């Protein structure tokens, strides 16, 4: 099967070209709207006052009423009494007194730990959200618009004492000159048992949250886990690539340079391209340079290590260049538009040459419009995923999400792919591939109920010209964020899909709980069925579990267990990690 029928290709091409043709007009209109609204106040304040000081804590005069959350960071300054504005921009020119981290939230107040100080803290001083925390607040408010349903992956990481939000698709700018230096490093030993064959593995894990290293604007953030050595009891067999190993490859870890006073941005490591995250992660580097106030030009290159990407190949390299336009802010109207060209090679032979377009328009929390498109140049050489292809659109995704009130969000999506995917099908039941399973038009809804309960659903129809009837793609889920005030988080998900590359369904459950301040448990299980020419492993059940125990304030032990039972592969996997934790927010 080389791809969808010509009728569907033509429709997708027409709709995508229409969207791109209208984009300049839309950008002009929304830019004018942004300028008109630039003087209006923000919906939520970004500057707060210190109202009380205790021996080890700082209390500020805002909490849930300002959408603050644990883990957000603030910088403290002491400007003249009459120099007060609605945001923290003007305060960044004053000497910074301290860096705070929010550790507890009430309705109209919050308790903060002091990360570092360079002066005396006093009642009445001002604290403003760091740019990263301000954008985290915006992203948490609009997460229901941008995601059809949450990812159900229980990653094999997490510090129960100092749990932080992981990197989002866009690398954030942190202008605070007060750096943060914390993370974890550990060494692991484990094994895999498959069909009576035992394998042993030794490896390492790194988890880092380091900003303004040595007083510079270099940062090191993310998570990585890998194996150094593998030995097998069989001379003819090697240990398999397990589901846990595949999930760990979806992490990002990189060194970035982000200076608010320099036009240059640099990233080195396993990272998303900040201006075009639809290209998935790269093992390599990128550089961008601002031109004027709104444009950025740059280049990128590296390999493509993420098995959850549509065009995954472990031997593939990618390189390209781009131009980005950005204007507005997330409190009013924000526009991000990227255009670029790239090529991929497999074993250093050119496989694809394509142009890519990515556009995002956000209006407060109410409206989010997103579009990504890739158009390939004609190629005649055989590819691993089959055959030659003419010039045309290879993939596109368009979505419009609307949130009329805070507890309800709606979305309409259109997803199109011309070629067969090369992602690893074993990841289907984890939720990491949900964005690829629905083709054609679909709609989604999410509702937040009382007692931290959320329900979400997505429905769509997919029909090729060779099908006798259209099929209903469907996904349903429910999340219990704090069952009976115990801190237990439970997520249940069901999905049934029928795409050009295969059909199937899966059920998944994800469970996490901090049993104490130093002990945390995560479990994820699932049952997936997938009929496709992409794999012979059509049925599989799996369970992944992680236990994380902090020993004192500086050491930790982590235990991992994975059970996988498929018709083409079955195994048990275990691992123990012992490591050291540095930095952190609590004594």
Q: List the domain count as a whole number.
A: 2
CATH topology value of the largest domain = Maltoporin, Chain A
DSSP strand tally: 28
Assigned CATH class of the largest domain: Mainly Beta
Mean pLDDT score, rounded? 79
What's the gyration radius in Å?
24 Å
What general form does the structure show? globular
As a percent range, the share of strand residues is: over 45%
Kindly summarize this structure in a few lines.
By secondary structure, this protein is mainly β. 10% of the residues lie in helices and 51% in strands.
Itemize the secondary structure elements and their pairings.
Elements: H1 6-37, E1 47-53, E2 57-60, E3 73-77, E4 98-105, E5 110-117, E6 126-129, H2 131-146, E7 180-194, E8 197-211, E9 218-232, H3 243-248, E10 253-258, E11 264-272, E12 281-291, E13 295-303, E14 316-328, E15 333-346, E16 349-363, E17 367-376, E18 392-405, E19 408-417, H4 434-437, E20 440-449, E21 453-462, E22 471-483, E23 488-499, E24 502-514, E25 519-531, E26 539-551, E27 555-566, E28 570-582
Antiparallel strand pairs: 1-2, 1-6, 2-5, 3-4, 3-6, 4-5, 7-8, 7-28, 8-9, 9-10, 10-11, 11-12, 12-13, 13-14, 14-15, 15-16, 16-17, 17-18, 18-19, 19-20, 20-21, 21-22, 22-23, 23-24, 24-25, 25-26, 26-27, 27-28
